[in-house]
């Protein structure tokens, strides 16, 4: 399905602009923007924080760096600011449930609930 959408975008861009290089640029931009949908990403929650592993590169987001979170149906967005800031989603980390909703929520309640200034209503 994703391939059909990319081909449709390329054809539509080529038809509207008449420029084949713009069609390639449009498709490249969409692939670049959605790379996280196509690459396996592993998450681990422990005493240090949230560990994110992509292509054997490990990134640790300490619990103290997370000031608020936004709940979604398929996961939670961990944010570095307590107040709503424009473009917050770009600086945050989206943590999908992946079938472990209750375990993820329990970890968030435990680790983030101990921080002063964090809203523990996760």
Outline the structure in words.
- There is one protein chain.
- Helices cover 39% and strands 25% of the residues.
- The chain has four helices and six strands; from the N terminus they run ααβββββαβα.
- The chain has helices at 2-17, 20-33, 88-91, 101-113; strands at 41-45, 49-54, 57-62, 68-71, 75-79, 93-96.
- The strands form two sheets. A three-stranded antiparallel sheet has the order 1-2-3, covered by helices on one side. The chain has a three-stranded antiparallel sheet with strand order 4-5-6.
- A hairpin with a 2-residue loop joins strand 2 and strand 3 (57-62).
- It is elongated, with a radius of gyration of 18 Å.
- The relative contact order is 0.11.
- The mean pLDDT is 86.
Average pLDDT taken over every residue: 86
Write down the secondary-structure element order.
HHEEEEEHEH
Radius of gyration using CA atoms only:
18 Å
Alpha-carbon distance between the two ends: 35 Å
- How would a crystallographer describe the biggest sheet? 3 strands, antiparallel
Number of helices: 4
Strand order of the largest sheet: 1-2-3
Shape estimate? elongated
Count every beta strand, where a strand is a DSSP E run of 2 or more residues.
Answer: 6
Question: Ranges with pLDDT <50 over ≥5 residues?
Answer: none
Helix content: 25-40%
Instruction: Quote the beta fraction.
Output: 15-25%
Structural class determined from secondary elements: alpha+beta
């Amino acid at each position: 399905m994703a391939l059909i959408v990319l081909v449709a975008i390329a054809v539509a861009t080529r038809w509207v602009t008449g420029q084949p290089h713009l069609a390639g640029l449009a498709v490249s931009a969409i692939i670049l923007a959605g790379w996280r949908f196509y690459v396996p990403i592993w998450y681990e929650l422990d005493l240090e924080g949230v560990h994110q592993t992509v292509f054997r590169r490990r990134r640790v987001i300490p619990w103290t760096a997370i000031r608020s979170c936004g709940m979604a149906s398929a996961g939670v967005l961990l944010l570095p600011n307590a107040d709503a800031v424009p473009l917050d989603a770009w600086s945050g980390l989206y943590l999908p449930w992946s079938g472990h909703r209750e375990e993820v929520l329990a970890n968030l309640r435990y680790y983030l609930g101990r921080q002063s200034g964090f809203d523990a209503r996760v």
